[in-house]
């Protein structure tokens, strides 16, 4: 029974708060704070209507460490679940240290003017969280999050060691818009336009963005083109599971998405450095975000399924084996349950589960942790019970590309 403060009233925050409210035995009190109070209030109204539970709401600029610390001192939650943007991570971690509260997020810190997707800034907090006797759990969404838990589960139950790991992220959903992103457009476009990096034999191998493509037949979706990308969990998995020789991340995109993105990139609209427009500094990608559909508005329109999982090859009792572990999530079912599409759902449910692991004391410890450092079993049980059931099957051999 714990009080939790969620920061960030976007699609992911909405799902997490709904799912926490559905589990009053774990989350006795859920509080939501974000930059725009009206968005918090809309989520609280939906939660009340769907579950009968009250969610207190607060306006908060989480970049203001003093304001966040003051709110934490007033509310005294057991945990802060940071579902704002990656830019806020360090400021919220500072406030947690100042107020003596545990911390969790779903995306690693990003400086506003550099697209890096590196853990170094958050890992640098290790000693301070350790000394304070507080836990910081980094990356409890789907990817990062569930995909890393899938890897540790395979290592615990199916393989003695993992040699190669491929993370396959397929969104087979269709929202009917010419161009839109399924989560925060600024973060999404930063990720997709960054050079593709994979981990191979102890080194990073880099190729230009969206240049390596494969077709894969996803269960419940069908054949899709997927592109090699960098994704932040590759760094933490390579660090915590150094036995893995090669780690790659793939994400599916339709041809229309790639064409739009290429044009936007060619004309400079995805730039994250400021330009002067009519005497004022603007960042092209932030302006683009302002004219694109809000991801939350796509919920009612999106049909189809996501299929996200891991393919791992390694040794079991001296014999090489390959396993595929994945979850399939339906956009319309996700929308019916919480009023949000499956991308927000597949992130918000693991955020709730990560929070449950910490507040029940199932996971814990003093310091900064990535999710693959904990026992995967209780997390995997909760995925099955709370809307993200998974399946595992043995493949005939390793991926041939
Ligand atoms: P949204 O843009 O929909 O929501 C972000 C929310 O944070 C908005 O309500 C925004 O407020 C609020 N916010 C932004 N800045 C501040 C601030 N300074 N203080 C307080 N609140 C602030 O994003 P999503 O819900 O799609 O994503 C949320 C997080 O989840 C992101 O960090 C994203 O990277 C991560 N994510 C992780 C995934 C995973 O699998 N691990 C997958 C998808 C997302 P306002 O409405 O006023 O702008």
From TrEMBL:
Source species, domain of life: Bacteria
InterPro entries noted in UniProt: NAD(P)-bd_dom_sf (IPR036291), Sacchrp_dh-like_C (IPR032095), Sacchrp_dh_NADP-bd (IPR005097)
Segments forming domain Saccharopine dehydrogenase NADP binding: 4-137
SUPFAM superfamilies cross-referenced by the UniProt entry: NAD(P)-binding Rossmann-fold domains
UniProt-listed Pfam families: Sacchrp_dh_C (PF16653), Sacchrp_dh_NADP (PF03435)
Domain named Saccharopine dehydrogenase-like C-terminal: residues: 141-388
PANTHER family given in the database record: CARBOXYNORSPERMIDINE SYNTHASE
Protein name per its UniProtKB record: Saccharopine dehydrogenase
């Amino acid at each position: 029974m714990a009080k939790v403060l969620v920061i960030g009233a976007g699609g992911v925050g909405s799902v997490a708060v709904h799912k926490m409210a559905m589990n009053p035995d774990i989350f006795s009190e859920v509080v939501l704070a974000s930059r725009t109070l009206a968005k918090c209030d809309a989520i609280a109204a939906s939660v009340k209507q769907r579950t009968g539970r009250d969610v207190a709401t607060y306006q908060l600029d989480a970049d203001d460490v003093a304001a966040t610390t003051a709110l934490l001192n007033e509310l005294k939650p057991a945990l802060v679940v940071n579902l704002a943007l990656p830019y806020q991570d360090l400021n919220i971690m500072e406030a947690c240290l100042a107020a003596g509260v545990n911390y969790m997020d779903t995306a690693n810190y990003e400086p506003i003017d550099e697209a890096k997707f590196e853990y170094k800034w958050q890992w640098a907090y290790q000693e301070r969280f350790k000394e304070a006797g507080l836990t910081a759990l980094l990356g409890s969404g789907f990817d990062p999050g569930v995909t890393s838990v899938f890897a540790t589960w395979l290592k615990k139950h199916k393989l003695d060691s993992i040699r190669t790991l491929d993370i396959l992220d397929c969104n087979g959903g269709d929202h009917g818009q010419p161009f839109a992103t399924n989560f925060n457009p600024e973060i999404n476009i930063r990720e997709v336009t960054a050079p593709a990096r994979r981990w191979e034999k102890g080194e990073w191998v880099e190729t230009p963005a969206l240049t390596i493509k494969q077709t894969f037949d996803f269960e419940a979706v069908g054949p899709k083109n997927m592109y090699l990308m960098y994704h932040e969990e590759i760094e933490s998995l390579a660090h915590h599971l150094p036995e893995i020789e090669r780690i790659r991340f793939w994400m599916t995109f339709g041809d229309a998405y790639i064409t739009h993105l290429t044009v936007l990139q060619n004309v400079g609209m995805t730039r994250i450095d400021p330009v002067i427009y009519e005497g004022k500094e603007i960042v092209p990608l932030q302006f683009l975000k302002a004219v694109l559909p809000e991801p939350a508005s796509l919920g009612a329109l999106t049909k189809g399924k996501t299929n996200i999982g891991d393919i791992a090859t390694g040794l079991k009792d001296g014999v090489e084996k390959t396993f595929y572990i994945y979850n399939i999530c339906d956009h319309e079912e996700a929308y019916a349950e919480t009023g949000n599409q499956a991308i927000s759902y597949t992130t918000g449910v693991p955020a709730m589960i990560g929070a449950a692991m910490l507040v029940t004391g199932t996971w814990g410890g003093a310091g900064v942790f990535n999710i693959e450092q904990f026992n995967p079993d209780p997390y995997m049980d909760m995925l099955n019970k709370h809307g993200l059931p998974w399946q595992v099957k043995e493949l005939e051999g390793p991926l041939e590309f």
